[in-house]
Amino acid sequence: MTLPGLIDKQDNVEVIKEKIGTLLLAEVAAQKALAPPQDPRLWDLRVFLDRTNPWTEFQQAPDQLDAIPIVNVTFETTSIDERASNVVESQTYNGTFSIDCYGYGVSSYAPGGHVAGDRKAQEESLRATRLTRNILMAGEYTYLDLPDVVNRRLVQGIEAFTPPQGEDSATQVRAHRISLGVRFRETAPQVTGEALEEVHVTVKRKETGEIYLTALYDTI
Amino acid sequence: MSLQQQAVQDLCSIFQDEANGPGSPVVVTDPNGEQRRVLGIITDIGEELDPDTGVAVSGRLASCALHIRSLREAGLGMPANITSEQERPWLVEAQNSENETVNYKVRDTKPDTKLGLVVCMLEVYKP
C-alpha cells in the first residue's frame, strides 16, 4: 500500500530558507528608499540562495561603489526536539541556516596615501553582516513572517572567513557567516480515516443528574 | 664562471631582451611617485582558492617578476608591500592581451637575491 497523494508541498525548511532571502530583499529595498540624501548604494545587498561561488562576481575588479556586497543563504542542518514532537502528526526541529556576507574592497588612490583593499573588503563584509543581522533580528520578524511554522529564531553566532596566508588573490574579498538558528515545525502526509459505519447516539440526563447514552444500531 | 654566476647572467639576458624575451614593458611607480619603464614578466590568471568555507572557489592571481638590477639601474629601490594607508604603495602598470591598461598594487614580494629576481604578488588598484 502506498501514499495516496502526490508529495508536492515544500517542506518548511525550504520555505524558511526562501523567506529569509525574500525578507532581506524587501528590507534592502526599503532601506535604500530611506537612505537619501545618503548614497542608497551603501544599503544595497545582492541576495542569493544556495550558490557555491558568489564572490566570482567581484573577479573583474569593479569600482568600489559599484561592488554591492553579496549575501548567500544556505540551509546547513536540522536536529529534532523529540520532546516537542510526536511520531504521527508534527515534529519540531532546530535548524541552522548559514547566511554568508561577502564584501569586496579595491585598493585605490587617496590623497597622501592609499585605501587598502583588504581593510576595505573587511569593512564592506561587516557592513553587509550588520545590515543582515539587524533585519533578521528585528522585532517585526520574530517569527520570520511565518507564525504558523516558526517558533523562534536567533542569531547563534558570526564567524569571519579570511583566505589563508599565501593565498595571494588579486581581488580582495572577505566574508562573514551568520548562523541563524530557527525552531520550526514540520508535518508529513497523514492517514485519512475511512468511515465504516454511522452510529447515532443520543445524550440524556436522568433526574438524578446521571448522564447516559442511547443508540439504535444493528448487531451481527 | 660558476653555475650561479651563469644563472645571474642568463637572467640578465632574459630581462634585457625586449624583442624576443618573455618580458613585456611595465611601468613601476615607487611610493615617492617615481615612475620607470622596465621589463617584467606579468601573469594574471584564474586559479582555485580555498577561502576556508569548505568549497574551493575561483580566484584571480596576478604577479610580476622584475629584475632587481634593472630596477636599480632605473633608479628604483626594491618593491615591497606598503601596509600603512598614510603612504603610497608600489604600483605596477601593464597592458593585457587586449592592450588595455591594468593597474596593480604590490601586495607582497618574494625576492630571490641569489638570482637577482623579485616576484611581486599584485592586487588590482584603482588610480
Structure description:
The complex is a heterodimer of chains A (220) and B (127). Chain A is of the alpha+beta class and 220 residues long. Chain A is built from two helices and nine strands; from the N terminus they run αβββββαββββ. Chain A has helices at residues 12-34, 117-136; strands at residues 46-49, 70-80, 90-105, 107-110, 113-115, 150-161, 172-187, 201-205, 211-215. In chain A, strands 1-2-3-7-6 form a five-stranded mixed sheet. In chain A, α1 (12-34) crosses α2. The longest helix of chain A is centred in the first third of the chain and has 23 residues, at 12-34. Chain B is α+β, with helices and mostly antiparallel strands. Chain B contains two helices and six strands, in the order αβββαβββ. Chain B has helices at residues 3-16, 68-73, and strands spanning 24-29, 35-49, 57-67, 91-95, 101-112, 117-126. Chain B has a six-stranded antiparallel β-barrel with strand order 1-2-3-6-5-4. In chain B, β4 (91-95) and β5 form a beta hairpin. The mean pLDDT of chain B is 89. Classes of the chains: A alpha+beta (220), B alpha+beta (127).
| Element-by-element helix/strand order of chain B | HEEEHEEE
The helical percent of chain A reads 10-25%
Radius of gyration of chain B using CA atoms only = 16 Å
Total number of helices of chain B: 2
Mean pLDDT of chain B: 89
The number of distinct helices of chain A, counting runs of at least 4 residues, comes to: 2
- How would you describe the shape of chain A? elongated
Secondary structure class of chain B reads: alpha+beta
Rg over C-alpha atoms of chain A, rounded to the nearest angstrom? 27 Å
End-to-end separation of chain B in angstroms reads 45 Å
Low-confidence stretches of chain B: none
The major sheet of chain A is characterized as: 5 strands, mixed
Quote the average pLDDT of chain A. 92
